[in-house]
Amino acid sequence: MDVLHKVPVREQDPKVRATNFDEVCLGYNKDEAVEEANRCLGCQNAQCVKACPVSIDIPGFIKEVKEGNFEEAGYVIGRSSSLPAICGRVCPQETQCEGKCIRGIKGEAVSIGKLERFVADYARENGIKPRKPDASNGRKVAIIGSGPAGLTCAGDLAKLGYDVTIFEALHEAGGVLVYGIPEFRLPKDEVVKKEIENVKSLGVKIETDVVVGKSVTIDDLMEKEGFEAVFIGSGAGLPRFMGIEGETASGVYSANEYLTRSNLMKAFRDDYDTPINPGKKVAVVGGGNVAMDAARTALRLGADVHIVYRRSEEELPARVEEVHHAKEEGIKFDLLTNPTKILVDENGWVSGMECIRMELGEPDESGRRSPVEIPGSEFVIDCDTVIMSLGTSPNPLISSTTKGLDINKRKCIVASEETGATSKPGVFAGGDAVTGAATVILAMGAGKAAAAGIHEYLTNK
Amino acid sequence: MYRILKACNLASNIFLMDVEAKRVAAACEPGQFVIVRIDERGERIPLTICDYDREKGTVTIVVQTIGASTTRMQELKAGDSFLDFVGPLGKPSEFVNEDIETLRGKKILFVGGGLGTAPVYPQVKWLHEHGIDADVIVGAKTKDLVILEEEMKKVAGNLYITTDDGSYERKGMVTEVIKYLVNEQGNKYDVCVAIGPMIMMKFVCLLTKELGIPTIVSMNPIMVDGTGMCGACRLLVGGEVKFACVDGPEFDGHLVDFDQAMKRQSIYKTEEGRAMLRQQEGATHSGGCGNCR
User: How would you classify the pairing of strands A163-167 and A140-144?
Assistant: First the structure.
């Protein structure tokens, strides 16, 4: 056995997968999982656990995998996480658990993410359900938003015996897991829906089509509907645009719109009504995970795709694995390049994008070297579609309709990192609504902290 | 599931439905809209609210069949259900939160074009219930497309109906009626609310700007989620990007860039996207000008 390297994981061939929406990574089988598990040193003072936002007992579950007790491994993870099949797929393990793995000092870290995924997939494929919580204590808690923060918070509270209802604005539960992250990275029917079913099997109710702040206010939920505490996990919000000329032209999308049409509304399938104009030559502006998702979706819809990013490859905020996958599939990267103007034809459609070359200057407050324009280096990228993937700014729907809920100058909800408590008694918050756009696992960590915070608040009330 | 309690045709291609949706009925105000989905494979279709009954827990919608989705919707009968009916979305009309005494001192003119008559109705009704009678102009292409006439008569101060072809009441565009009321009748209006096809709202705004009447329009661009997430509904208002779903749908008509909005409205009008277009326009174009096929 090669202890220095991970057991390689099987993936769909790049040429084949560039034309389909099936999952890219195929995951470990039993033998591969056991072999990889045996690379774990089972550290007493496990650094990986400390680096996990939801503190999964990583050596504990891997020990069960080593011994072939896959079901028990699932219960060990289940004590800390309600969404293991999702986390095993989309967490940035390289900067969290695997980033702190002692094996990684000399050689490669243990493939914790792929092992978690294996355990979760095994449980699902073998019909193993999470253990039922103790009897209900009858106390009602409302959760706003059914994304990773809300689902985690709901799952933890249900395990403690609370009567939990999730309110979801869209017609389907899952938040960014269903509208944002594409099928080929996170299968919706097989993985996301099943994981949500597991949360529901703990007794959690989900009411879709309720826009809190519009259909009902937080004050109404607490005063008229008997909820003793509320958790706000409403997500990031309004997509940002650059403010350059031509940005309202036809053929310019936010990544959110492009991905929502394809993922949530299934526009890529002929048997669904929602249309999408995939574009033939697509330019995606931005370098984060969402930009990679949009680019790889456009590619699968048949487009020739360029990613335009103003810094260099080193600064790309997307996960290395996603960048690697994108390149393998044939996506071109125009780095150190920034759009200056979107060119528009006489019918109001995108006909190209004027860009300028950049060079890296001094580091800015984020520690990344800030890009500076090279005068006179303007050029035009030939494209018919532009997808802006520049992050989001908070949605005012809830903050503007809830009395006594403080927001900061970036308009994010102010909440304690330890307990999720906001300025309004009984109201807690976490995830992107508090931090601005971040990752699935950080939102889950916040949901988990808030569940503990709500439990403490209600116990002492 | 959201049960349809009543379904009837107002014109050959315009129909009305009362839908049971308790949360929406309890919370909605004039000026807001809903998003409806027929079934699992359907689009999310934004529709303006025409009326609501808080006690019965029902919301009334008026829809024009333009594409595949709305044609499918018209086939539904009382007793059938929508899979999704979410709202109320967008901000209520500004006057809902105005001081009622100040409001009583104002002279308000409403202009409803085609299907735009439907979202005008709850606003006029709300004012009527608060003791304010507004003047209302209803415009339609032809006699058969004049909708909600009886209902409107009961709540409007003065009702002026005009048809493009002169087949009913006055002949000509709504702008002709505005000119008549202001220039010939000497009426003075503090505010005008115009809802209808974009091209109508554009020309009403050009005229009211000339006449010095502040004007509010209700925009109905392409939308997907309707909660501020996707940005599909962005418009240029006073040179700034605004999202119709969370910042609107009502805006200062004198600041809206209608030409840009109309171009965006036709995103799905490519040759190969013609079939898609019909669905898309049916889904999002509640103006109902009848010219957008």
Answer: parallel
